[in-house]
Design brief:
Blueprint: H1 8-14, E1 17-18, E2 32-33, E3 61-64, E4 67-70, H2 73-78, E5 84-90, E6 93-99, H3 105-114, E7 123-124, E8 129-134, E9 139-143, H4 144-149, H5 163-174, E10 194-196, E11 203-206, H6 213-217, E12 224-233, E13 239-249, E14 253-264, E15 268-279, E16 284-295, H7 310-314, E17 319-328, H8 331-338
Antiparallel strand pairs: 1-2, 3-4, 5-6, 6-8, 7-12, 8-9, 9-10, 11-17, 12-13, 13-14, 14-15, 15-16, 16-17
Family: Belongs to the TIP41 family.
Pfam families: TIP41 (PF04176)
Organism: Cirrhinus molitorella
């Protein structure tokens, strides 16, 4: 992309990833992808990203403040959720989107102990993954566990009046301990994906090259679209912390957005975005990571309803950090790609 401007024009391009598909598989209109986090996008998206999506889990246990509630099978089925595992081929690449149920409490407690964290997000989808793998074995994937490994578990990053009470209630209900450890209870993560490959590796280096948003604006058929939620937590009813990843594949390229969204009511809003773009016959992918953040006190001129919509509020958040990288493929794959 041409370098992201901090104001609305480019944000509207990026944050309007609107997916608009025709009823038939053969004729799908191109979309301007909309980065929606309040509900489902496209026909393939069976899981929304708001409070209502919880009703869509089947054969799972729902964890609410440390209490497990058995979900009604009939009511869940009526909302249409089912586990899915989809593969889509794009040249030498295979895109895999796996979505299943939230982890059980006991599994989460064991994982929290392993990760040395007093508590983990209430809704943790440990087996959900979005993976992009080349035929030669290298690639990149996005999963909840690796995202949580990038959380600073040694300090509180946000100080609010309810933070201590919240931590103590979580510790008491989920994994009682003599002392409540300090950790980032907002689960803020700068996760940018997990590189894959045992014998062949992607080389990562800084770059001044940008994702070309003009190409993404072009009307092009959407061959595949999917969104995968990795985790979500309502911060004891004091906001929301969540991370999800979505991808769209066109005939000549694919574009991915990994978004961490944090809203601590009365305190701040933060968005960490990772964008990944690859054009067919190129020997690399471009990855851009950005952080936008603002104190709530600086957003008083914005209608409160906008605070809950990451796409709308993003254009009002100052850019704090921007890093651009080139992910270069191993030489053999690069030569094969250039000959396609």
């Amino acid at each position: 992309m041409a370098f992201i401007k901090e104001e609305s024009e480019d944000l509207k391009i990026e944050e309007t990833l609107k997916v608009k598909q025709e009823e038939t598989e053969e004729q799908t209109d191109v979309m301007v992808l909309k980065e929606e986090t309040g509900g489902t996008i496209g026909r393939n998206c069976s899981l929304g990203v708001g409070r209502n999506w919880r009703l869509r889990a089947v054969n799972t246990w729902k964890r609410v403040r440390g209490v497990e509630l058995s979900c009604s099978m009939s009511s869940l089925i009526s909302h249409g959720f089912q586990s899915s595992n989809q593969d889509f081929s794009f040249g030498p690449w295979t895109v895999t989107a796996a979505k299943t149920h939230i982890m059980k409490s006991k599994d989460i407690e064991r994982l929290a102990e392993t990760m040395n964290m007093p508590a983990l997000p209430e809704m943790l989808f440990g087996d959900n993954v979005l993976r992009i793998r080349h035929n030669d074995g290298f690639g990149i994937e996005f999963n909840a566990i690796d995202a949580l490994k990038r959380v600073n578990n040694m300090q509180d990053s946000v100080k609010v009046a309810c933070a201590q009470e919240w931590q103590e209630s979580r510790a008491e209900s989920e994994a009682p301990k003599e002392v409540v450890k300090r950790y980032d209870w907002t689960y803020t993560t700068d996760y940018r994906g997990t590189l894959l490959g045992e014998h062949t590796h992607i080389k990562v280096s800084p770059t001044t090259e940008r994702i070309d948003m003009e190409k993404l604006r072009a009307r092009e058929q959407i061959k595949f679209f999917e969104e995968v939620l990795l985790f979500e937590d309502e911060l004891h009813d004091h906001g929301v912390s969540m991370i999800s990843v979505k991808i769209r594949v066109m005939p000549t390229s694919f574009f991915l957005l990994l978004r961490f969204f944090l809203r601590v009511d009365g305190v701040l809003i933060r968005i960490n975005d990772t964008r990944l773009y690859h054009e067919a016959r190129k020997n690399h992918m471009l990855r851009e990571f950005s952080t936008r953040e603002s104190q709530m006190s600086a957003l008083q001129h914005i209608p409160p309803a906008v605070y809950t919509d990451p796409n709308e509020i993003a254009q009002h958040l100052p850019l704090k950090l921007m890093e651009c990288e080139k992910l270069e493929f191993p030489e053999r794959a690069a030569q094969a790609g250039s000959s396609e």
